[in-house]
Design brief:
Elements lengths: L7 E5 L3 E8 L8 E8 L2 H12 L6 H22 L4 E6 L5 E5 L5 H21 L4 H4 L4 H12 L3 E3 L5 E3 L1
Antiparallel strand pairs: 1-2, 2-3, 4-5, 6-7
Length: 166
């Protein structure tokens, strides 16, 4: 889950302001800076909205900024999350999730586990007359790890989606 950080004003020309917020990332990844543009103040926001509707909107400016800020933070978190190689492998005695980075496993064991999961997903997709992409929820960390291993020259990704040790 993204950790809340304070926003900073990067630039304000009196009409619009460019804001910067830091978004916490999964695992040990460094925080990511994301930018978004908003009206400089509630008067500018109301001027903008009035051109659209002609009606004053009390309190809408704060709601607008809050919604926009949440959206850009979530987008940034999801983008990095899609490249995460961390998976949950169980729970400890206190009920906390035990997380492991797939890149820390020996490559041969990773390949065997990846192909086992991929083949099961492929079989299920075939039986349901769907594509693997329609069913691969939760498989993103495995895909990210296979891409990173491939980029490092450790595995080869086959046309059918399986991986093999180089």
């Amino acid at each position: 889950m993204a950790r809340a950080k304070a926003d900073e004003t990067k630039q304000d020309n009196g009409t619009t302001a460019t804001m910067v917020t830091m978004v916490g990332q999964p695992g040990d990844a460094p925080d990511k800076a994301v930018e978004y543009t908003i009206p400089s103040n509630s008067a500018k926001f109301q001027d903008y909205v009035a051109t659209l509707s002609g009606m004053p909107l009390d309190g809408a400016y704060e709601d607008f900024i809050d919604g926009l800020r949440k959206r850009v933070r979530q987008e940034a978190y999801e983008a990095v999350q899609s490249e995460s190689t961390w998976i949950t492998v169980g729970k400890d005695a206190q009920g906390n999730a035990i997380r492991k980075d797939l890149l820390t496993f020996p490559v041969d064991k990773f390949v065997a586990a990846f192909n086992y999961q991929w083949n099961g997903l492929s079989a299920k997709a075939t039986m349901l007359d769907k594509t693997v992409e329609e069913l691969d929820r939760g498989f993103g960390a495995w895909r990210a790890a296979s891409r990173k291993h491939s980029d490092a020259g450790k595995v080869k990704i086959a046309v059918d989606g399986t991986v093999s040790v180089v």
